[in-house]
Amino acid sequence: MSLPLIMIATAVVAIALGRLTAWPTIHSLRTQLANTTRSTLHDPLTGMLNRAGLQAAHATLAKTAPARPLIVALIDLDDFKRVNDTHGHGRGDDLLIEIGDRITDIAALHGGTAARLAGDEYVAVLPARTDDLDRIADTIATITSQPVALPADGSPVTVTITASVGLALIDTSDPFTEVALHRADIAMYHAKRNGRNRHAIYQPGMTMPPAQHRRGPRLRDRRPPTDGATA
Length: 231
What we know:
By secondary structure, this protein is of the alpha+beta class. It is built from six helices and seven strands, in the order H-H-E-H-H-E-E-H-E-E-E-H-E. It is flat.
């Protein structure tokens, strides 16, 4: 074999060995990147999308189907603090996981997606294939309020919790946080004010109820809509 061929063969073998040696490192880095991306977009407790993940999903939908109407349902559990105070934070987390699974199943059934925003607050985003928002809200409220058996020392504890649901009909082109969530949040607070364990649908011109009827200010309460319309 000539010297040039020997040199080429040696270089090829060296490159191949280098790739084989580097592959575990590359695989590990790819795995770490995938895990980091998932943790950035998903809630660590329930495995659902988090706020950032939901915004990313909405941004993708806005590009692929910009004129598609959506139903945004904001679900806030009623008196969740009582569960934590009575049964402990561990069982409270178990309850949040179970409720999250139920809301995820409802969203998937309607071809949508769901997320846990924070604490005891969830959101479902569904394609608006029907104008029957009341039926969707009733489905969410009914399934959420089914008893949940929580693990406990000795025997399980059965807990029943209700939810207040606010719904808004939006377009994918609407800014998600400043318009979609803001409107659903307004409707949800009206459901809370009207007695909890019920739902309200956002209507044009609807505003936040007086502060004394609200559980407390949230970050997005202080963000005015950016579409030039009344909240």
